């Protein structure tokens, strides 16, 4: 796939000495949905702000479709749409005026049909002549999205776009995102709703302490870092794990009526077959079994609770190397 956004060796140190970003390397592919996950203060908004020209980097470079954001700022910025976390709009403008003005800021000719389409997609058409000050918080959030789409960007940043909004807006938002992706727009989102990233994203990036811990295809991440659990409902309760099964790391559950076995998602099913054979040899029967796998949220929590220096962990380091050298 073609790279549309390239971030190389990007760092940001503020005057106070705080280092918000540390040698970020990241390539985003045209037409993908990329979710950037990280706890508060991890560097997500700083990274987005640098790419969008709001904050200056201390070192490194960013290119959008080949345009450097510093030396070719106008061309680079015209390709980017940003939906910020904060509700920042001109309160006394009408919806139609502020969205149309945003299009003109990027030198785009007037296109009422496009503005109408965006407003209809965001359920704002009936509010087009209302002043923004009269709108609810959810409607104001929709206006921000409309403004970001007014100039038909190729790359759309969504910085916590559905934080604190109603269910209806979340649904409309993700329907719109799917449509934008289908038209070739690249979506980069940060979100605290990890279920959204799990449902929507093609790739996941995890940032913590100003460093990229890993970048991976969502499905591959689930396979590599997810944990699976096998639960066996026993024919007869156990008071303790038999000594001959100690090496499996089994745990009793439901008052001894069930056994649980936790294992890496990548392990071959032969391990399970061997375990069931060992249970049979130990005279332990079961009436039912079921498996479950870690959610993306559980994987994320396990990653961000590691020291960022833990990116030297071979699995994480390999992922970082792969995304830098092959994408």
TrEMBL record:
CDD domains: ABC_DR_subfamily_A (cd03230). This is Putative ABC transporter ATP-binding protein YadG. Gene3D superfamilies: P-loop containing nucleotide triphosphate hydrolases. Pfam families: ABC_tran (PF00005). It comes from the Bacteria. The keyword Amino-acid biosynthesis does not apply. Residues 5-234 form the ABC transporter domain. GO terms for molecular function: ATP binding; ATP hydrolysis activity. Keywords: ATP-binding, Cell inner membrane, Cell membrane, Membrane, Nucleotide-binding, Transport. The keyword NADP does not apply. PANTHER family: ABC TRANSPORTER ATP-BINDING PROTEIN.
């Amino acid at each position: 796939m073609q790279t549309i956004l390239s971030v190389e060796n990007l760092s940001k140190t503020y005057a106070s000495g705080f280092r918000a970003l540390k040698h970020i390397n990241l390539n985003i592919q045209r037409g993908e949905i990329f979710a950037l996950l990280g706890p508060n203060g991890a560097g997500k908004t700083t990274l987005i702000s640098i790419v969008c020209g709001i904050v200056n980097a201390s070192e490194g470079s960013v290119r959008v479709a080949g345009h450097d954001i510093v030396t070719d700022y106008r061309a680079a910025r015209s390709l980017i749409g940003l939906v910020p976390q904060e509700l920042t709009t001109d309160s006394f403008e009408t919806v139609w005026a502020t969205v149309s003005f945003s299009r003109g800021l990027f030198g785009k000719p007037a296109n009422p049909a496009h503005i109408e389409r965006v407003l209809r997609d965001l359920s704002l058409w009936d509010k087009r002549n209302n002043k923004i000050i009269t709108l609810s918080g959810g409607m104001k959030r929709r206006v921000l999205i409309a403004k970001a789409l007014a100039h038909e960007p190729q790359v759309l940043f969504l910085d916590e776009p559905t934080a604190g909004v109603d269910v209806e807006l979340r649904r409309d938002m993700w329907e719109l995102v799917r449509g934008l992706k289908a038209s070739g727009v690249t979506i980069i989102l940060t979100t605290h709703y990890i279920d959204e990233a799990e449902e929507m994203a093609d790739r996941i990036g995890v940032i913590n302490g100003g460093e990229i811990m890993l970048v991976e295809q969502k499905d591959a991440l689930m396979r590599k870092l997810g944990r699976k659990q096998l639960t066996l409902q026993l024919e007869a309760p156990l008071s303790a794990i038999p000594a001959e099964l100690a090496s499996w790391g089994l745990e009793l559950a439901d008052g001894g009526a069930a056994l649980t076995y936790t294992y890496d998602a990548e392990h071959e099913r032969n391990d399970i077959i061997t375990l069931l054979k060992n249970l049979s040899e130990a005279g332990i029967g079961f009436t039912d079994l079921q498996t479950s796998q870690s959610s993306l949220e559980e994987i994320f929590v396990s990653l961000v609770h590691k020291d960022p220096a833990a990116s030297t962990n071979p699995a994480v380091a390999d992922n970082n190397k792969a995304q830098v050298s092959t994408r």
